[in-house]
Amino acid sequence: MKLSHIIEKLNINYSLNQKDDIDIVGLNTLEKAKINEISFLENSKYLSDLKNTKAAAVFIKKYFINDIPLNSIALICDEPYVNLAHSSSFFKYPLIKTSGSKPNIGSNTQIMSNVHLGKDVIIGNNCTIMSGSFIGDGVVIGSNTIIYANVTIYTNCKVGDNCIIHSGTVIGSDGFGFATNKIGKHIKIYQNGNVIIQNDVELGANCTIDRAVFNSTIIKTGTKIDNLVHIAHNCQIGEYTLLAGQVGIAGSTNLGKRVIIGGQSGVSGHLNISSNTIITSRAGITKNIKNGGIWSGFPMFEHTKWLKLQAKISKLLK
Amino acid sequence: MKLSHIIEKLNINYSLNQKDDIDIVGLNTLEKAKINEISFLENSKYLSDLKNTKAAAVFIKKYFINDIPLNSIALICDEPYVNLAHSSSFFKYPLIKTSGSKPNIGSNTQIMSNVHLGKDVIIGNNCTIMSGSFIGDGVVIGSNTIIYANVTIYTNCKVGDNCIIHSGTVIGSDGFGFATNKIGKHIKIYQNGNVIIQNDVELGANCTIDRAVFNSTIIKTGTKIDNLVHIAHNCQIGEYTLLAGQVGIAGSTNLGKRVIIGGQSGVSGHLNISSNTIITSRAGITKNIKNGGIWSGFPMFEHTKWLKLQAKISKLLK
Amino acid sequence: MKLSHIIEKLNINYSLNQKDDIDIVGLNTLEKAKINEISFLENSKYLSDLKNTKAAAVFIKKYFINDIPLNSIALICDEPYVNLAHSSSFFKYPLIKTSGSKPNIGSNTQIMSNVHLGKDVIIGNNCTIMSGSFIGDGVVIGSNTIIYANVTIYTNCKVGDNCIIHSGTVIGSDGFGFATNKIGKHIKIYQNGNVIIQNDVELGANCTIDRAVFNSTIIKTGTKIDNLVHIAHNCQIGEYTLLAGQVGIAGSTNLGKRVIIGGQSGVSGHLNISSNTIITSRAGITKNIKNGGIWSGFPMFEHTKWLKLQAKISKLLK
Questions:
Q1: Could you tell me if the ipTM is greater than 0.85?
Q2: Is B270 a catalytic residue?
Q3: Which of A152, B20, C121, C207 is positioned for an S-S bond with C169, CB 3.0–4.6 A?
Q4: Is residue C203 a contact partner of residue C169, using CB atoms and an 8 Å limit?
Q5: Nearest-CA distance from A186 to chain C in Å?
Q6: C144 conformational bin, left if phi > 0, alpha if psi -120 to 50, beta if neither
Q7: Among all residues of chain C, which has the CA nearest to that of B266?
């Protein structure tokens, strides 16, 4: 979509030089935006990202206009995040593709009855896709993968080789992203990224893995996830990680390799949890963890400290 | 069903005057019962509701017989709640309607393959209903609404305009209501109400919104709900509210407008949470909140107090 | 599968006497193994079970070789649990049976469209199986049972009479069982047991009941379970128990009769919770409960103590 068209649709006051009227292909963060993408600055803590952005244009408040680099156009507005939300709808993928290739199915792959296969679907060899599953447009599935009954995989998501996806699990539903405007209405930020499940991953029953707002939510090789686990948009879950039942990981959090999280624990958004970290059951993790270790409780403590603290607390009863 | 028939089936000892033998159309609370409904009094804290009830008849212990108004018949029994449960089965909706109209589908609405549309279903214009979804008898869906794959909407529920319902979500499953009898058996209270989802609502993946026991569970306009959220029977969720992943709201709780609840928090049943309240993640709310504010923890505290308290607690380690 | 074949496939160094080369039919714990099953000893706390095991053979570290009874063959290896995992794949049930009987459906049972019925399925009288449900091979369902839309029941599970299974619930998905090898890779332990749901059980929407690794996960008669509840592999949930929304029970835990657990609580694995125990909402139970009572909090306390403790804690604010 032409930049001029976006500017016009959003009623942004900017007279675009014709040579700058490039084709915009999507939205992205300041840090990751390419030269044909638009970004935004709402929160001043991302000012340093602004200075280095490659974005073609940036939704921005007038106040920050001097911080925008020469290669980017300032799209001045009162509510940059709301404008991002409005513009996200211009790039949303079609709900149901009307054109595209027939599914490309490998040898010895069994598709049971009542499976929906969208356009441009590619499935490898020796897979089993069981009844009631929905494989959206553009989904790519590797070889030797089992999709149990009533699984839903949304458009453009990828599942690797040797994966097992249990029933009721949803891969690629929209991340929970809204921009609240001045009158308190929540404007949807279309989640135009996807989910990538690498190889040798097992997902339990009734899990939800949300698609990224931009780019990809990623579950890396060898990771095993129990039932009713929620992975929000833009998370990266490292290799050989174990997440027990009913764990929730909020948006944009990265887990390293070989992380273990006990049942019913939660991790806040935008955190980095280092490799080899162990989080015990029913913990609430709200800060980055840099050097592994065992963590417990909410508020969180190192496990041995948490045990001591609980002993001290129980003495209050005496 | 004739009142005499109910009295007979439940072995209630009451000789009904023929002119009082009206058609009973359902059950309800003392407060909301209409003149052709039956109610019950189990707990003396509802005595004031008894005095003002319009119910045709009330299951009631002998002890409270003098408090029943003249317009109501006292159906004296040892276990009023158990009798309510037994009588609820007389009013249950049919699992699968055998008669009724064919679905009435608006223009430009797309129904994919393998969608079940029950009798008397009405769907507006420009909707998309994706494969594997189940639209029960009597369900009404507005215009411009998207129902993703493998959604289940039970009988008689309503979904408004411009809604998005993600995969695996269940709307209208039975509320968790049982009356435990003297020998410890849990008698099902049939949930004969429904769910109403108003306009501009988005429900994440694998949520469960239970139908009301009487009347409606309501999700009001503009509210957005993340994945794996549980809304129990008879809740009312106010306008422009945001509920993050894995939140649970117990039965008959009302949230006001623009409430925000962080991930993995829970709210007990029969509470009123005022508009503009913010509840942080992993909180357990057990009391009414009257004037908004930010609340945290379990037990719950105002957020600033909770932070102070946690600081004090952590000092116990020293 | 011949024992010699297993020994060879796993590269175990053992020269089997031909008369000992029996047919092995499966794997089991030391305690429950039959004379044609294999077991394992990884953790020395099960040494007493080793001494009494009937297992034909046991994966075991060299160190424990003198403790194995005469009737069992010691399959010496460095990683007994990993060998158990590898051997579990030899006994996995087929994903989709290619031979077997057509479904045997009782009188007055209604199967809606788009229901998958596997081989050797048996369903009693007066049942309703709604659209989108998946009834795996060898599943047995009693009479008067309702399976709502989009339920998934995996191979060989059993559901009794007068049960109600709400939409989106998954019965018999794989328990979360992996053996982590020396290089940190998680080897799947195939879950070759099943789930047994006895009579008069109601399961809410989007629950997950995992199949046992060996033997059965059991939900006993008259128990009612709310939405989004997770029951891990090998649990036994006693009669007339009530589990509220979003509860999680970790693996191999037994609940007695008439247990009540409030919303969002969790119970750790390998525990015994006695009959008539009440666990309030948002509790985390980590120890056996022997004599009922009411329990709260995390760490857990008797409810009255927990209330006192919270009162003491809140005084820290002053």
A1: yes
A2: no
A3: C207
A4: yes
A5: 27
A6: left
A7: C264
What confidence tens digit (pLDDT) does each residue in B182-203 have? Answer: 999 999 999 999 999 999 999 9
Task: Give residue-wise pLDDT tens across range A147-162.
Answer: 999 999 999 999 999 9
Write b or e for each residue in A100-136: b if 16 or more Cβ atoms lie within 10 A of its Cβ, otherwise e: eeebebeeebebbebbbbbbbbbbbebbbbbbbbbbb
Residues of A in contact with C178 (CB under 8 A): 224, 242
Band (pLDDT 50/70/90 cuts) for residue B286 is: very high
How many whole angstroms separate alpha carbon A61 and alpha carbon A126?
54
The whole-angstrom separation of Cα A210 and Cα A206 is: 13
d(CA A207, CA A230): 6
Q: Which of A5, A233, A270, A303 is catalytic?
A: A233
Q: How many CB atoms lie within 10 A of CB C92?
A: 13
Tokens of C298: 């995390």
Q: Which residue has the tokens 């990683």?
A: C79
For residue C168, list chain A residues with Cβ-Cβ distance below 8 A.
150, 168, 206
- Report all structural domains of chain C as residue ranges with CATH numbers, in order of start: 3-91 (3.40.1390.10), 97-168 (2.160.10.10), 177-318 (2.160.10.10)
Contact B227 A173 (CB under 8 A): yes
Structural contact between residues A53 and A60, judged by C-beta atoms closer than 8 angstroms: no
Residues A203/A225, Cβ–Cβ less than 8 Å: yes
The C-alpha atoms of residue C186 and residue A242 are separated, in whole angstroms, by: 9
Report the alpha-carbon distance of residue B307 to residue B299 in Å, rounded.
13
CA trace torsion B150, A216, A225, A121 (10° rounding):
50
